[in-house]
Every structure is written in structure tokens, then in C-alpha cells.
Specification:
This protein is mainly alpha-helical and 63 residues long. It has two helices and no strands.
Length: 63
Amino acid sequence: MDWIEFLKVMTIDEKGAIAKYKHAASKATDPGLKKMFTGMMEEEKIHVQLIEDKIVQLQKKKA
């Protein structure tokens, strides 16, 4: 597996975490928990963007 493939797998994992935190936030009745899960979801979105940006950079180097 090359780094591009590895990073693509990482985005799948990160997107799975986004879905879990989104679900948890939607079910949380405690405002503190809802805020925590929402914040964690937003962090994962940043991770996805960072990884996808790196994939693009590596693909350009490869071409």
C-alpha cells in the first residue's frame, strides 16, 4: 500500500468518526455532551480536509 492509499483509508476512518459524533450529538440531551460531540465532529472534519489536501499534493508529485 502506498501513502496515497493509506491516506484514503484514513479519510474513511475519519468520516466514520464524524458520523459517530454527529449521531451522538443528535442523541445527547445534556448541552455539555452535545457541545463536546459537536466539537469533536468539527475536529474530525478538519482532519479530513488536511488528509485530502495531502493526497492532492502527493498525487501532483506522482504525476
